[in-house]
Amino acid sequence: MKKKPSDSITFTCGLQMKNRFMLAPLTNQQSHENGQLSDDEYHWLTMRAQGGFGLVMTCASHVQEVGKGFPGQLGIFSDDLINGHKKLASKIKSYGSLAVIQLHHAGMRSPYEVIKQKAICPSDSEKHNARALTLDEVYQLKNDFIQAAIRAQKCGYDGVEVHGAHGYILTQFISSEINKRQDQYGGSLENRSRLLFEIVDGIRNACGKAFLLGVRLSPERFGMKLSEIKIISQQLIDDYNIDFLDLSLWDCLKKPEEYPDSDKTLLQHITELDFKNIKLTVAGNIRTGDDVQNVLDSEVDFVTIGRSGILHHDFPIHVMKNPNFKPIGNPVSVAYLKSEGLSDTFIDYMRRWDGFVEEINK
């Protein structure tokens, strides 16, 4: 039967998502430097819940202070941060949306000017001014991911997503180019992916079967190989410890870098996996109502929306009313973005996207 964007989804953990739209975990730099939730970030995220997203995910939220990846990042590394998260999760859920926090650690991608010390990495990296973690520090990192999930559950979040994509610390462990460790966390793919699996197992054991648990992976860039990510993905599915897999593809319809002569798109390589009861979501250039339907028709369970969710807080409502909906064209004015819940800080950040924000000639 053809999937409709308005269809609800029931995850293995028993939770139901009211439609097939997830707000992507979007960097926005709007919170306080100590990791506390700001009013601006609260407003931006809760407005998307009000706008009909079935699942609202926070930006990447760091599980250790040294894992901070950008200024104004929302943290989940300390009990001191709980009150903000309780307020945020409660409000998101009040609109019938699932509230999910993304657990993150930037590793060697933590800028020195942000963390005021050397970044940490599976192996020494002179290029990134990063030092290798000791084995005890790897164990601590694993525990801090698990503790962050326990903290998130206490805050009232429906679940967490473990960020294993985009060149951050779990990607750094998986990458044979970056990870040169000689212990049980380096060498073979089994060893390089060990930390990810131990974190997932630890969260499931600590938070129980009724807690929504997802993993984000990216099959390309940052030393990732599609063939290895497919193996890891299938193992995550087969172990039944996750509820959904979130693949960041950059562009769903591109050809894979590892197989340039393949007649399959990157998305087709992913959908070949045997997903069993595990739900699949993908991100990557899904901007219009037609894009949403095309991706759902490609054996994907729900779509992850970034750019169009910034432009329209109520993008899901538009698409469910009009399957051919197209978002407003760029560039858009500062006033328009403010009306869509973006603060001055977030708008400044969006100027990094070429042609996104209208520039007024002075």
Describe the structure.
The relative contact order is 0.13. The chain has 362 residues and is α/β, with parallel strands linked by helices. The chain has a single domain (9-327), classed as Aldolase class I (TIM Barrel, Alpha-Beta Barrel). The model has no long low-confidence stretch (mean pLDDT 96). The strands form three sheets. It has an eight-stranded parallel beta barrel, surrounded by six helices. A two-stranded antiparallel sheet has the order 1-2. The protein has 14 helices and twelve strands. Helix content is 35%, strand content 15%. α1 (39-50) runs parallel beside α2 and α2 (82-94) crosses α4 (135-155).
The whole-angstrom Rg is 19 Å
Strand percentage lies at 5-15%
- Seen as an oligomer or otherwise, the chain set is single chain
Widest sheet: strand ordering: 3-4-5-8-9-10-11-12
Largest sheet report: 8 strands, parallel, barrel
- The low-pLDDT segments are none
Q: What would you give as the CATH superfamily?
A: Aldolase class I
> Can you give the helix content as a percent range?
25-40%
What is the architecture at the second tier of CATH? Answer: Alpha-Beta Barrel
Structural class: alpha/beta
What is the total domain count?
A: 1
Number of strands: 12
Measured distance between first and last alpha carbons:
55 Å
The level 1 CATH classification is Alpha Beta
Enumerate how many helices there are, as a single number. 14
Mean pLDDT: 96
User: What characteristic shape results from the CA principal axes?
Assistant: globular
Order of secondary-structure elements: EEEHEHEHEEHEHHHEHEHEHEHHHH
CATH topology assignment: TIM Barrel
